[in-house]
Amino acid sequence: MGTYTYTRSLKIIGSIIFGLFLIIGLAGEILLFCIPTTIEAIVFFSILYPATIFSCGYAINNFFSSIILDSEGIQFRSPLYKRVLPWKDVSKVKFTDHGIIIHRTAGALGFNVSSSRQGYQDIIAFISERFTIVQEKPKPAQQLSATTPETAVTDEKLLRKISQVNSISGYLIIVMAVFGYIMLTTGYRIRGLDYIQFFFVPLMLYGIIHYRSIVHIHYFPPAYILLIIISLSLITSPERKYKFYNNDYWIYVLIVFAVLVVLLTLCLLATQVSLKDRIMHICIWSMGFFLCSCGIVNYTNIVLDNTAPVRYRTTVLNKRIRQSSKTSSSEMEFKGWRDEKPVTMDVHMDLYLKYEVNQEVEVDMWPGRLGIPWYQFVENK
Questions:
Q1: How far apart are CA 378 and CA 260, in angstroms?
Q2: Together in a domain, 289 and 198
Q3: Where are the transmembrane segments (predicted)?
Q4: How many degrees, rounded to 5, is the angle at CA 50 between CA 48 and CA 55?
Q5: Cα-Cα end-to-end distance for the chain
Q6: d(Cα 341, Cα 43) in Å, to the nearest integer?
Q7: 127 part of a folded domain
């Protein structure tokens, strides 16, 4: 038994599109670090760059992947991963007009190889040397056993669900990218828009349950991109408003975060993924969930706060820039406006450059919708 390789190559148009995305992302990163930019541009490119890299990686992983069949088993190779399925773990191989389904002890493994593509019949001939292949529509040139109507319907539903997941994830990414852009520009003035964005988080969790029969096949990389867009857009929506990170703030964040993690854990328990894969999912999603939790608490406490502010006059006592090997932050120390204790806080670079030591500034203070004080510097025109 020799070796057969089926390779899916990226089309020229796809290469150009993803190449342009990558160039835009790299250009944004260069602009971010090389020229003075507004906070909106920084946030926009900070979201665009990782999302672009992630989407390009996902495209490369899918389009430049290959299926290698040899005496050891079936190997799924791509630039980002390598997976081997030994023949001893394969119980049955089924071919349909929509793709190939490999039945194994842990569940079915599906991948799309169109019957019209070159190499489809070669794969059938190669695997038929070792297995009795079940095919929905028998080919005249093959000695194939027939499948039951019930099994054929089940397999068609499985492949249809795989296609649905990819389509829905793609549409959600486009919709959330639009929401993210609106939120980063003027969306923080639209009451309730953040809650609409946050709704997509439990919607993704519901998708895991709804498509639980194929979660062990696909790891939903498009959903990871969607989670990045939601998370960064939520956490940056209260523009140019500052908050105190007191104990109450972290309590609210941890409550929302814990609820999301519990829901994710319950969703994964309903799937057939292994314990290792469940831990991987929880770790990756938890990072986004934490950002989502911070964002929804910030939005509720700041944007939905309708109380009148109290204005305080204070003085800049000190200012400094903290630098490390990769990051830097601007920090200012003010005379306490509600008591005599000095207040130290991180500020944007434009405020750091605007105010000098011993200069008097005015600060508006709000109690916060959740009881977490937040403030905003008064722009003197």
A1: 37
A2: yes
A3: 12-35, 42-60, 168-188, 219-237, 249-273, 279-304
A4: 90
A5: 81
A6: 33
A7: no
Q: Which of 266, 285, 304 is the C-terminal boundary of a domain?
A: 304
The token pair at 292 is 């989502």
Task: Give the domain extent around 190.
Answer: 150-304
User: Which residue would you say has higher pLDDT here, 376 or 122?
Assistant: 376
- Structural tokens at position 336: 């306490």
> Tens digit of pLDDT for each residue in 265-323?
887 777 666 777 777 778 777 877 887 787 788 878 887 788 888 888 888 888 888 76
**What phi and psi values does residue 163 have, to the nearest 5 degrees?**
-65, -40
Structural domain ending residue among the three candidates 304, 326, 355: 304
Q: What is the pLDDT of residues 96-145, one digit of tens each?
A: 555 566 666 555 555 555 444 455 555 666 666 555 544 444 444 333 34
- Amino acid of residue 241: K
pTM above 0.70, yes or no: no
Main-chain dihedrals φ then ψ at residue 192, nearest 5 degrees? 90, -10
Both 285 and 246 in one domain: the answer is yes
Amino acid sitting at position 210: H
The pair of structure tokens assigned to 350 is 């434009």
Give the whole-angstrom CA distance, residue 159 versus residue 8: 18
